[in-house]
Model the fold of this input.
Amino acid sequence: MVFLMAGGGTGGHVIPGIAVARELSARGHTPVFVGTARGLETRLVPAAGFALELIEIGSLQGQGRWHQFRTMMQMPGSVVRCLALARRHDAAAVFSMGGYAAGPVAVAAALRRLPLILMEPNAMPGLTNRYMARFSRKALLSFEDALAYFPVGNTELTGLPVRREFFHLPERKRGPIVNILVTGGSRGARTLNRAVSGLWPLLAGQPVRILLQAGADVPDIPGVTVVPFVDDMPAAFAEADLVICRAGAGAVAELAAAGKPSILVPYPYAADDHQARNGAALERTGAARMVLDGECTPERLRDEIAALLRPGKLEAMGAAARRFARPGAAARAADLLEECVGVLKQ
Done:
C-alpha cells in the first residue's frame, strides 16, 4: 500500500517522518513524501531512499501580510495538486507531521476521506495540526500539554521517533571531570556560542570539560573543544554528563531517550513559542533547567552548572529524563496507519 507522508521544512518535521516511513517500508508498504522545494526534505528524503513529490506552499505564522496573502493564494492549487497525487499513487492513508508543507496534503486527505494520522512533536501544537485534528483518526503526541488542543479520545501519547542508539546508550558513571556537551543543532546557535565563549574563564577551578558544536562559524575558545558538526551525536551523548541545547522536540526526545540531564535554552522565535513550552514541560519533570535566550549569559550558565554539580543532582535529573522517554513511536504510528486501512497483523 502507498502512504503519503506530509510535513517538511525543518528537520523536526522531516526526520520523524522518515523514521515512520522506514517502519512502513520494512512492512512492505510504499511511503511517498510530499514537501516543498526549499525545505530540508529535498536533501533528507532522497538520501533516505524515498520518493518526494513537490508542491508550492508557504508558511503563515510569523510572516508579513504579503507573504501570508501569497500563501493563501497558493493553497487551492496545492490542494488540487495533492488530490491528484493521492489519485495517481492510489494512496491508502496520509501521515502528517504538521508544518506548513503538510497543510494542503491534510486538506486533500479530508476531501478524499482518506484516513489521516497526525503526529504532533511539540507541547504547543502547530497551526496545521490544530486545524486538521478534527479530521484525523488519531493524533500522536509527545507532551501531555498538547492534549487540550485535540478532541477528547482522539489522542495517544507515543513520543517522537528517536534513533535506537539513544535508547541503548550505556549508563554513564560520573567521574572526577564532568563532560558538558553544548549544541545548538546542526547549524549551531549564536546565543550558545557567545555564552560559551565567555563561560570558560568563569569556570576556573571547576572540574568540567566542554565540547561545543558551533555550526559553520567556529569560534576559537581557549579551554573548549569546538567543532562545526558532531557526526555521531549518540556517541557524544554517551560521553556527556550534562547537555546544554535548544528545546526543539527532537532534542527533547533524544535527551529523554538517552536519560541525560540538560539546560535548555529555547529558540525565542519558534512559532507559538513552542520551544519554551517544550522546555517548561521537561523542567516540570525535574529532568532539565530552562534558561531563556535573553538570559543566557556566561554568568547565568556558570551559576546553573555550579548548582547542578552538587552530589546526586545530575543523576536525579537523568533518571527523571529517562522516565519521560517513550520508545516505539515509529512502530506505533505504522500500526495505526495499517489499522486504518484494514491491514491485519499476522
The radius of gyration is 21 Å.
